[in-house]
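Task: sequence design from structure.
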């Protein structure tokens, strides 16, 4: 499998993986495979900033290929600004009235 791994490929950590459960994106492929965690174990997008490096053997044994969690349309992404606006507005009104 290692000869087919490229930057921007996605993998899900299996139970034997030495990393936190989740979906990872390949960001480097030299002596080892460098991954950034981009989604939790349920596939929900997370901006964790967690970067790990695993051996080529580990990526083949403990990870499975996964779809890109950023692909496709998600209604929650469209509605997120609308749902956070009332909270932000309330925060600022309380801050001004103090």
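Answer:
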């Amino acid at each position: 499998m290692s000869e087919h791994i490229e930057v921007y490929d996605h993998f899900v950590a299996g139970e034997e993986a030495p990393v936190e459960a989740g979906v990872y994106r390949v960001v480097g492929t030299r002596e080892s495979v460098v991954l950034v965690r981009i989604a939790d174990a349920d596939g929900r997008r997370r901006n964790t900033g967690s970067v790990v490096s695993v051996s080529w053997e580990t990526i083949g044994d403990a990870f499975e290929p996964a779809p890109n969690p950023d692909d496709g349309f998600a209604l929650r992404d469209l509605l997120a600004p609308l749902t956070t606006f009332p909270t932000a507005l309330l925060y600022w009104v309380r801050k001004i009235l103090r």
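DSSP finds two helices and five strands in the chain.
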